[in-house]
Amino acid sequence: MLSDDMSFEEMLNKSFRTLNTGDKVVGVITSVTPTEIALDLGIKHTAILKYDDVTDDPSVVLTEQFKVGDEVCVLLMKFNDAEGTVAVSKKRVDSYANWEKIEAAYNEQAVIEAKVVEAVKGGVIVFWNSVRIFIPASQTGIAKDGDISVLNGTVVRFKLIEVDSVKRRAVGSIRVILREEKKALAEKFWAEIEEGKTYTGKVKSMTNYGVFVDLGGVDGMVHITELSWLRLKHPSEVVAIGDELTVYVKEFDSEKNRISLGYKTAETNPWKIFTDTYKVDDVAKAKIVNMMPFGAFAEVIPGVDGLIHISQISNKKISKPADVLELGQEVEVKITEIDYEAQKISLSMRALIEEDEAVEEAVEEVAVEEAAEESTDAE
User: Fold this and answer.
1) Residue-wise pLDDT tens for the chain (379 aa)?
2) 44, 75, 147, 208: most buried, per Cβ within 10 A?
3) Element at 59 (helix H, strand E)
4) What is the Cα 132 distance to its own chain's centre?
5) CB-CB contact of 205 with 211 (8 Å)
6) Where are the alpha helices (DSSP H) in the chain?
7) Domains in the chain and their CATH numbers?
8) Using CA atoms in the order 287, 291, 293, 296, what is the torsion angle rounded to 10 degrees?
């Protein structure tokens, strides 16, 4: 209490409230630097709040998070009468409240978002409400022996799987979230799947008999016979792991979690492509792919072969196709017949040879006639 008998200094000192070490008090920020904050607590001593007494989170920038005039609740730590300062801690005040939040998040199994600040041996470190949380490598969602450093600086979603308030230890798991999300996607997928439905997915793995495609949390298989209209020895002839495929559901068994997918369509059927492109009497380039005593088979387009009968290979009599042709040789052929029902094609090289000869004979006749006319004119 102030009285008229007190000196100015005594009255000034009396006007300051009395605080002790261990007291929790709210102060007003008077200055902020990158390493410390000065506070007015309403006492003679200036409160000094060092960075390490603000937070353990190295990503916090004091000059960005705190401004002059802001109020901060701190704990009085140590008075220095000679310097007129008192060391204070915000971190200790926050600690109890923050651990209450950690315990609540753990009990409620809440989804937490935080930035990864560091990859350490065996896992990564995040800070949430200034509390250090460790996420083991096995819980990051990164494959075994994968590079967990790719998570540095990224914001991750996780749940707390272990909390020890006494030891101030918290452990999180990203993998739990990924597993839950995958389960939710799978349930939605199975609820909406139907035969004939189209999906776009990525080739996840490959076997001798087909490929497995990730349709978004659920895998389906494309049998090797469904990958192409052509005969394949191995799926790698037409696809690679990571390729994106547009597939459709042929059949499925939700109880066994099995999905059979189709990839080849009527539009990609080589026979349809051929009949849309060629007709009888058209000329095409073909490659000799097989030879038999009665003729040679020539590929007009991939997946569609036609027969050049031995009598249609040359305008001269030959004993076998190899007398004129070689495997892999490209030749010009005329399409002489298309059996749409049996999907067979008849080809002829001889027809083109005879047409060329007929043209040559006609040209020669014209030349002879013109020469005769010129001779008559000269006489």
Assistant:
1) 434 454 444 444 444 457 888 888 999 999 999 999 999 998 889 999 999 999 877 888 999 999 999 999 999 999 998 999 999 999 888 877 888 899 999 999 999 999 999 999 899 999 998 889 999 999 999 988 889 999 999 999 999 999 998 888 999 999 999 999 888 888 899 999 999 999 999 999 999 999 999 998 799 999 999 998 888 899 999 899 999 999 999 999 988 989 999 998 788 889 999 999 999 999 999 999 999 999 999 999 988 999 999 999 998 899 999 999 999 999 999 999 999 999 999 999 999 988 877 777 666 666 556 666 666 655 5
2) 75
3) none
4) 30
5) yes
6) 8-15, 62-65, 91-108, 174-192, 224-227, 270-277, 350-378
7) 8-89 (2.40.50.140), 95-178 (2.40.50.140), 193-268 (2.40.50.140), 271-354 (2.40.50.140)
8) -20
Q: Is 236 helix (H, G, I), strand (E, B) or coil?
A: helix
**Predicted model pTM:** 0.52
Strands (E), the chain: 24-32, 36-40, 46-50, 71-80, 85-89, 112-120, 123-128, 131-136, 155-164, 169-173, 198-207, 210-214, 219-223, 244-253, 258-262, 283-292, 295-301, 304-309, 330-339, 344-348
Q: Strands 85-89 and 46-50, how do they pair?
A: parallel
The set of residues, in sequence order, having a beta carbon less than 8 Å from that of 82 and lying 6+ positions away, is none
Query: What is the rounded distance in angstroms from the CA atom of residue 128 to the CA atom of residue 140?
Result: 16
Burial pattern 129-164, b for ≥16 Cβ within 10 A else e, equals bbbebbbbbebbbbeeeeebeebeeeebebbbbebe
Cα–Cα dist 95/130, whole Å: 8
344-348 and 304-309 beta bridge pairing: parallel
Give CA–CA dist 190/44, Å, rounded: 70
